[in-house]
Design brief:
By secondary structure, this protein is mainly alpha-helical. It has two domains: 9-26 and 41-62, no CATH class; 70-103. Helix content is 71%, strand content 0%. The protein has three helices and no strands. The protein is flat.
């Protein structure tokens, strides 16, 4: 019973999560108020605090562009090693395919 209930619980949780983010996914229609709100004011009042906290935490986890920079020499060295590695497994797989006796 627990094994069959797990996908159902996960599906319900996914639907609830998507329903929560539905309000943040679309731009609100223009309001009929006389004084327009400042840009971003409406977002902050409708759950935007959680969204901006999520964006900030995602930005903190993501590496900065300078940290991920790799020189061309390093890419070339990696490519040479990867090519030899890939060639070995390709040849081994091809030999295995041909020695099985049935194609």
């Amino acid at each position: 019973m627990a094994r069959t209930a797990l996908p159902l619980v996960l599906a319900v949780a996914a639907v609830v999560a998507l329903a929560q983010f539905a309000n943040l996914a679309f731009v609100a229609p223009p309001s009929t108020e006389a004084a327009p709100a400042l840009r971003g004011h409406d977002l902050m009042t409708k759950g935007g605090v959680a969204a901006s906290a999520a964006y900030a935490s995602a930005a903190a986890v993501a590496p900065m562009p300078a940290e991920a920079a790799v020189s061309e020499k390093q890419w070339n060295s990696f490519g040479q090693v990867f090519a030899i590695f890939f060639l070995f497994f390709w040849v081994a797989g091809f030999v295995r395919l041909l020695t099985l006796g049935r194609l």
